[in-house]
Write a structure and sequence with these properties.
Length: 225
């Protein structure tokens, strides 16, 4: 089995790597969250062992990025962050298992074998399409009618949320939580400002508007009816 171990504590990493190797597993070790994400996006592996506190990018952010990109590789959190809320947060973000340090190696091995036996989940598409608008989640690019559209990070995130919910109303609260990951003052105009810029790029140059304001509700993106 090919396993990625993302762990910045070298002593722990060597202990795990050696133990897994003795059981016939091939282990790739990285110490930085960004390196873990890059490796997983471009190299297939069977299981990921992921620490939550790492330099560069924390483990929870790595997992969220992987799931957003459609990667369904089983992920086991191996971390000292063991509060109930922290476990729930990790599992809710798409983690398959959660093991708290200190741990017994035999338990880690059993959990690796257990998640590897689970049937692979259906892989979500990394390409979202609404009418003639396309969003590629891997290359982080947008095109409409074949023409490339340059988007800033928040504009891309806004558009992704809308397109994942195509045909449905997306409320301001949903956008604040999913794009900014923060509870802004309800009276803030940050959404309207960014939405205006997004529409100027997505709709204004084209004949058919796709982004619609739903009065007293939020926003919706859908193909012409």
């Amino acid at each position: 089995m090919k396993i990625l171990l993302a762990e910045d504590d070298r002593r722990s990493a060597e202990f795990i790597r050696r133990g897994l190797g003795e059981h016939g597993h091939s282990v790739e070790h990285v110490e930085d969250g960004r390196d873990a994400l890059t490796f997983c996006l471009y190299n297939p592996c069977d299981v990921i062992i992921l620490d939550r506190m790492m330099p560069g990018m924390d483990g929870l952010a790595v997992l969220k990025a992987l799931r957003a990109a459609g990667r369904k590789t089983p992920v086991i959190f191996l971390t000292a962050m063991g509060d109930v809320d922290q476990r729930v947060e990790g599992l809710s973000a798409g983690g398959d298992d959660y093991l708290v340090k200190p741990f017994h190696f035999s338990e880690l091995l059993a959990r690796i074998e257990a998640v590897a036996r689970r049937p692979a989940a259906e892989i979500k598409s990394t390409r979202l399409v609404v009418h003639d608008l396309e969003l590629d989640l891997l290359t982080r690019t947008a095109r409409r009618g074949g023409a490339a559209i340059e988007l800033l990070a928040k504009e891309f995130a806004l558009l992704e949320v809308l397109m994942r919910n195509a045909g449905r109303v997306v409320t301001r609260t949903m956008l604040l939580e999913q794009v900014w990951d923060f509870n802004f003052d309800p009276k803030t105009s940050v959404i309207e400002t960014h939405m205006s810029r997004l529409r100027a790029k997505i709709d204004k140059p084209f004949d058919t508007p796709l982004i619609h304001t739903m009065r007293n509700a939020g926003y919706s993106i859908h193909a012409p009816r």
